Model the fold of this input.
Amino acid sequence: MAPQVSHSLNSSTDLGPRCQTIAGASPFPMAAVDASTFVICYANEAFCLLLGQSNIMLTGTLFSAAIPGGEASLSLLRRVRETGQAEIHTGQEHPSAHPLFWSYAMWPVASPAGQVLAVMIQVTETARFHEQSTAMNQALMIGSLRQNELVEEAEALNEQLESEIARRELAYRALAESENRYHALFEALPVAAFVCDEDATLQSYNPRAVELWGRAPRGGLEKDCASRHLFLPEGTPWPEQTPQARVLRTGIAERNMEALLERPDASRLPVIMNFAPLKDADGQVVGVVTAFDDITERKRAQEEIRRVSERFRFMAESMPQKILTTTSIGEVDYFNKQWMNFTGLAFEEIEGWGWKGFLHPEDLEGTIRLWSQALATGAPYHNVHRFRRADGEYHWHLTRAVAMFDAAGNISMWLGSSTDIHEEKLAEERLRRANEDLKQFAFAASHDLQEPLRMITCYSDLLMVGDLTKLDSEAAFCLEMMTKGASQMKALLADLLAYAEAGADKDEAAEAIDLNEVWQQAIKNLQQAIDETGAVVTRADLPRVNGDHSRYVQLLQNLIGNAIKYRGERTPMIHISAERQDGQWTFAVADNGMGIAPDYHRQIFGVFKRLHGRAIPGTGIGLALCHRVVESYGGKIWVESELGAGATFYFTLPAKVT
Done:
């Protein structure tokens, strides 16, 4: 009889009844042993029949002593106790000379804290299988002649099996990696995504879906998630079956659908949605993937663009100018109503390149050439051409257009305007004719009108060099007045000629003129007056400007000459300086003369305007000539002065030099 040993497993652990219940319900031989002592604490009926002993006799006995060859079980029991893992014993660990063979299946019984308190053991007597194994070995020995063949066949089959196993392992690994990549991609998607089965029942979703949906969807329960609660962008219910159901029925993806999604909290979110079918290997639809994203910011931007566009159109339609916009390649996509009112044509007739139809034929080639250059370079477009009015009359227009560039520096559109300058062109033509008439007058003044003066002067000179004693005093006085009048008339005609020429366009191109040299020439021309009055004329360094040398000599000579002429009682002190400001030169000619009352500051630049009558000689054209020269170069002239405090004449000229 096996020795009896006390054991620690008791009812306080609540494992005794559990072990008895498990073992008692099994038809196979089973016993429960204490994990600390390996003492049998319960054996079921099948175990007792196997060993021919009662439960009372076996309880308290070491398991290794109770079963023949049981010493081999101790290593198994220790491993179960130490690892907490089940173990299986095949019956080959006990002495082969023993008439019985056993196989064991052992598994731990643990406390709630995880401590192994008992081990359940199922025992199978394998002697019959051992006998069969022996018979098989004998048969194999009898058939040893075929052993090599069988080995080779087995090895070949084994190689095939190993190859197939390796192939399947690679396939399983690739499938697992694909699944992992899919899962990682699905989780990291920046848009919300749902996956539903063929019944439209939700199966999976990503974190973005929870964020946009407002709560975690109920997987396996909710149907048509993110599709059933759809409204059209204007807020009316979706008119047909859900897009998800349609994709499940047709197997055709549906993309870029804008909708309002009603979430569980009843709020509506503007979204853009895509639906794609999931198909099996046979091409059958087994589910659908729904992806959607919040387009709230996009809708706000679109609304802002709409408002800006409305403001632009309101402004463009309210302007008297003709406004247009074109695409990046120059096709007109917008004309304001001024165009239709002017041309009498519908927008559809003049959009794109249709505007060529109302352009004057003589201006068509030049207009297209300049417009093509602007489109190619992105440079501002500027042109003057004629458009046909609804009544058939052509009007001159000034057209400008500028390109709008995107963030990448590419042209996105053009904005242009056309202004009717027909009246200005007519006025320009009238001015041109007036200048031509003035030129003709200048020619007459320099030739025809001076011829009688030369005759009067010539004959009066002959009388003056004769014997004046033969003339009475009255005749001599008349001769003197006639000579002076002729001289004054000659000077007046010379000044009028200079004034006319100052406003006429010169044929030769403007050149860069050094005003220091101009000043030097003016001083040379005025040297007699300077010497007679003792005037002191100085200058700062003067710049180079575009223009005509002779006109600038007239300008400085008249300003310096006036300062000498209206010098008052003091020795004339005259200084010329220049300062660059805002892209132009501002010149100052300052003197210490008698000054000019503020009431006459503008009047003195008119033709024949003289403040001192005949007390001071002159023709009254000098300052008018200065005004004409300065304006011909795009500048302006004015005076700052007080009576008795000298005067400073200012004038401006463009600073750009070609």
